[in-house]
Amino acid sequence: MACVNLPELPLQMLLREHPEWNRRPAAVVDRDHPNGVLLWANEQARRHRILPGLRYATGLSLCRDLCVGTVSSHAVSRTIQRLIRLLEAFSPCIEPAAQEPGVFWVVATGQDRLRGSFENWATTLRQTFAQAGFQATVAVGFSRFGCYAAAKTKKANFVFRDATQEQTHLRATPIECLGLEIKARDTLRKLGVTIVGDFIDLPADAVHRRFGAAAFQLHRLARDKDWTPLIDHTSSEPIQAGQVLDYSETNFDRLQNLLQPLVRSILSRFYERREALAKLRLSLTLDDRSNRHEQLAPATPTLNEQQLLSLLRLRLESTPFPTGVVELKLQGTGSPATSRQMELFPQNPGRDPHVAQEALARIRAELGNDAVMRAQLCEAHLPESRFEWRAFEKFATAQPVKKSCRPLVRRLFTQPATVPARPRQSGKWLVTGTTDGAAEEIIGPQIIEGGWWRREVSRAYYYVRTRSGRWLWIYHDRKRRRWFLHGEVE
Amino acid sequence: MRLKITRLSCKGVITASQLLAERPAAIQHEWRLESLLGRFVEISGGATTAALTCTASLILQAQLVGESAAWVAGGSSIFFPPDFADSGIDLNALPVVRAGNPHKAARAAGHLLRAGSFALVVLDIEDDSRLSQAAQTSLSGLAHHANTALVCLTRRTGFASATGSLVSLRLEADRARLGFDRFRCEYLVVKDKRQGPGWRHQEVCRGTDGLC
Questions:
Q1: A157 and A130 fall within a common domain
Q2: Quick check: A351 and B119 CB within 8 A?
Q3: Which residue of B has its CA nearest to A446?
Q4: What is the pLDDT of residues A81-123, one digit of tens each?
Q5: Which terminus of chain A, N or C, has fewer Cβ atoms within 10 Å?
Q6: Mind listing the pLDDT tens digit for each residue in B111-144?
């Protein structure tokens, strides 16, 4: 793991545009107006006590030579994309920090063997950035936050030899490097918490209560509680979606309805890659076998579905087709999305859980209150006791778990059906009659006993494969001395 | 006729059966819930069906992307919830409508589709029971309008579809044992109005508790 830090990236971008400002006080403002707020300031400006957070007018009153400029978020996104392309020569997996432009986490595993040592690798990387006109610091370590802290504090490249050294350095890092809010930082200083080690030792609940969610999140990161694997941003492969129509479509409205799910699909996949759509290519196959290609680009990379659909509609209306459309293809090219875009993009556009609740209420009214349920798992041995049905009251955010290898799923019969007893001799066992043939393979028994305090149950469960291939799930009730079909593997 | 086909084969002409046999290997479509949105899908299978396992993968996909899924049971059997939980599905976010019979199940599915708030509605109807043509027309229209995948589980094989011509995609889910505790689930698309039939998707699953 390594962290590459380009300190105050927007300021570096501004100074690259205006090299004559390098020796003068310079700052980035959010808007070119006397009331604009200074976001980043260079060393010369800081000497005049011009600090981020001041108004432009205040800065001018402190130093008349102050030079300021704005840097758009789009320009920052483009630069980050360019820097990722530079980093691709040094690592197979790169993740830019969502909240802090100029910070990248990269996988450095194996680079010491390729380049001789991690120091050589970091030096070459830094030189490459310098040639591109950017200052960078590289820290190689073992954890995200440890590398981040080192890259933020060190002026030169740094390589940790072991995790203990990294932890020691992390604990000694001043809390100013954490990016805490000024108010929270000042409060911490008053409490005598000046280094990250002291901050980590604070109880998590207290941090959340006194300093808010942002500080709590930082606290968890510093404790390495929120570790996540790197999300690779090197692959900027275009995303495609298409649809073949059963008929020739000539109506623009219907065509737009067909395009909507395709656009939504592309945007959701860009969202998963933390990218926004920068270019959209529409390919139409017409009924006369001719093809038409249209290229669209929104003003800025976007995840806004309606904006893209309106652009598509305008383009389609401006170029009428001689015949109907029989195939649609969309291809989107992405660029890194800003954190604001990621917040705004809804996970499931158009799906309203409140309307779903209303639909479930209608079903309850029609079929009875017990018609809409949810399964709740229970600690028990008998299959029918391993879950119970409870009323489905409201939609909660699903928390599924992705499994590398899922199991087959059984179908459970509400009322177990009686089946013929297993022949004592070596005869054929026709469990479900002659339709599925005789049992060819039997796995079991799996003995389940219990309920002795109420009504004793003793069952021997078997999986039986019939000649037709069905895997039946049957049991022998030892008390009743009868066989039952309880389920089936599907 | 058989003689003619044999002669054509001898001359190096590829027959239709050969084409169908070779096509699945060449075409590898991605099995994603997104490709089923707005469509009426029938998942069927015979004795070796893996319809529930296939449907579980769709529900999991829906939940992983933050979408809602619902289950409408129209028969006397239902999925075994611990197996769904073992597949990674969050049961608390999966409403199950126990309608009792296919007719009521179709009406309940209509309510869910009309809401437009679900990405996936599974209609698990009783064996050998057919949905009426009117119900199918209504449901497929609602699914298209709501951009919802309506998945109907049936137990038919071959060309004897339990549902009618309104089905946009029909697949047969089949399973086969590969070895110890490993089963191959194969989903063969026998009808696809958009991309054409013949493509298939495979995944390897493990056995249920005790089946290995």
A1: yes
A2: yes
A3: B210
A4: 888 888 888 887 788 887 788 888 888 888 888 888 888 999 9
A5: N
A6: 999 988 899 999 998 655 567 888 889 999 999 8
Number of residues that this document lists for chain A:
490
**Minimum distance, in Å, between the CA of residue B7 and any CA atom of chain A:** 35
CA separation for the pair A248, A285 (Å, rounded): 10
CB B160: neighbour CB atoms within 10 A?
Answer: 8
ipTM rounded to 2 decimals: 0.84
- Which of A414, A336, A387 has its CA nearest to residue A81? A336
Judging contacts by C-beta atoms under 8 Å, the chain B residues touching residue A360 are 95, 97, 112
The domain total for chain A is: 4
Check CB contact under 8 Å for B48 and A470.
Answer: yes
> Which residue segment(s) compose the domain that A375 sits in?
352-398
d(C-alpha A93, C-alpha A228), whole Å: 14
Evaluate whether residue A67 is within a structural domain.
Answer: yes
Based on the domain organization, do A371 and A448 belong to the same domain?
A: no
Statement to judge: residues A59 and A20 lie in one domain: yes
Preferred mutation among B72, B111, B112, B126 to probe A, highest tally of A CBs within 10 A = B111
Q: Looking at the domain assignment, is residue A185 inside a domain?
A: no
Q: Which domains are assigned to chain B? A: 31-205 (3.40.50.300)
Give the H or E element holding residue A317: helix A305-318
Q: Is residue A205 part of a domain?
A: no
| Nearest by CB: B208 against A244, A347, A489 | A489
The domain boundary, picked from A344, A360, A381, lies at A344
